[in-house]
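Researcher: Please translate sequence to structure tokens.
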Amino acid sequence: MKVVLSQIDTKEALNKLYTACRTCYNAGKPEDMYANVNETPDENKIKLLSAVIRSGHHSVLEHQTLTFFISGVSRALTHQLVRHRIASYSQQSQRYCEFKDGKFDYVVPNKIQNNPEAFKIFDELMQKDAEVYEKLIQLGLPAEDARSVLPQACCSNIVVSMNIRSFMHFCNERLCTCAQLEIRQLAQEMAKSAGEALPFLRPYFVPKCEMLGYCNEPDKRSCHRRPTFDTFIRKEN
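Model: Translation complete:
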């Protein structure tokens, strides 16, 4: 797995988000506020933006987009990833990209990797899939039909663009221990890159329990990093 975040102008991103915040609470014109935005110290911009986020006014975050170049992840992961609807995706096509000699890279789930017997069965199946795929290609079938035998473990590459509001939600859900390990690792890499590019937003690229103050998962699924909802309510009352 590899994650690369496209270059972001940190100063410009802060100025844009700050101007969006001020526009909502100021009678002035946004173009005038933006023209004079550098007169305001960055710490003041961050203070306002943080207050707006804490208030739940997250629409202002939709004016900044993050674009990630992601490679070496499984199709199982990308099927989960594209369920995050407010985003744009461009994925490697198995219709048009034919695997030479039937050989394809694949992701081995951690629990299979750590179980020798399971790994042996899994690896044998991957090799068989590759043989069948190549045989279908040799029979003259196009890649778009031969791909029907490829497994969800098959590696894929994808470009993902999300606005900050959507990315926060992605992090909140996929950094949770309830998320499958592979996509959780992807979320960790994406959150790390985004946090380095936009350090004033790093506190919001966290599991949902950190935003809510409690865990909203059933007790049996909770990692207990935060109290579960029922425990939290009893404590508050």
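Researcher: Any highlights?
Model: The mean pLDDT is 95.
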